[in-house]
Specification:
Layout: H1 2-27, H2 37-84, H3 92-125, H4 127-156, H5 163-240, H6 283-287
Helix pairs in contact: 1-4, 2-3, 2-5, 3-5, 4-5
């Protein structure tokens, strides 16, 4: 078992080394390579299409995240308004109902975008990695075919070649050629079909997106119109002075009677004297010798 794995690994390393050598020779201009201008055009279209799909996927997902953030922010705002809008004010029950309607509209929009826009976009984008693998495989098989073709050409130009090896080399070249041509033919059919599918996908996806947005904004406009009407009624009641208000009794006036100073201490000299006894109010009379 270990010997089998080791042998497969050795063949894989040799194959990769042979491909790397062939590519170097081609890049240096020391070996020709098979070209297919039509395929190159298909490949360019594929690359552009994949870049656009990746960009759209990124921005649609970011848009959906923002929608969900707005959904949460709108819910919090409506809850706060419902809490501070007092029960005695006109339209308090309507405010609650419209807040619930607004929350349902945001949830419906987020669900539609996730289910009918993002999921189909994920399916559409999932085609590109698999197609890229097949394109890369075609490239490797093309290098293998060119390498086998160059080996046959070198042996064909050698008058002292080994015929048995030459026949085997031609068989390997034909096998490499068939493998490459099968993949190349499939991609010549699949790449244009994938490229053409972008139109129908984009039409369907954007129609769903814009229809969901149109419905959302149309219905939320009705909700906010109702909310505006509630506040307008409250404003009119304030202007007319008909808004229910809780009344409170007025406070009683404070009297200005002289306070009586008392002191319970037996040693205090500020205790009020008995009636008829001399007080500090008679001090002026003593100063005037009236006490005599």
């Amino acid at each position: 078992m270990a010997d089998t794995k080791g042998g497969n690994l050795s063949r894989l390393v040799l194959k990769q080394a042979g491909r790397a050598k062939e590519k170097i020779l081609q890049n240096l201009g020391k070996a020709d390579k098979t070209t297919d201008e039509i395929f190159e055009e298909h490949l360019q279209n594929f690359n552009t299409q994949q870049v656009n799909a990746t960009r759209l996927h990124k921005d649609i997902n970011n848009y959906l995240r923002c929608i969900r953030a707005m959904q949460t922010a709108s819910k919090n705002l409506m809850e706060t308004l419902s809490d501070i809008y007092e029960k005695e004010w006109v339209g308090q029950d309507m405010l609650y109902v419209q807040a619930q309607n607004n929350e349902m509209l945001w949830a419906d929009l987020a669900h539609k975008l996730s289910d009918q826009v993002v999921i189909p976009l994920n399916t559409y984008q999932a085609q590109f990695p698999e197609m890229r693998k097949k394109i890369d495989k075609r490239g490797r098989k093309l290098i293998d075919f060119d390498a086998e073709r160059h080996a046959v050409q070198q042996m064909q130009n050698n008058p002292n070649r080994n015929e048995a090896k030459f026949i085997k080399a031609k068989e390997q070249m034909e096998n490499a050629k068939r493998t490459y041509e099968v993949l190349n033919s499939e991609l010549h059919d699949e790449l244009p079909a994938l490229h053409d599918s972008r139109i129908l996908f984009l039409v369907t996806n954007m129609q769903t997106l814009f229809a969901a947005e149109e419905c959302f904004h149309s219905e939320t406009a009705k909700v906010y119109s109702e909310l505006e009407g509630v506040v307008d009624k409250l404003a009119k009641e304030v202007q007319k002075g008909t808004l229910p208000r809780k009344t409170f009794p007025k406070p009683q006036p404070i009297t200005n009677a002289n306070p009586v100073i008392t002191n319970s201490s037996p040693n205090s000299t500020l205790a009020s004297p008995p009636k008829g006894e001399w007080t500090s109010s008679d001090e002026g009379k003593t100063n005037g010798f009236d006490k005599f």
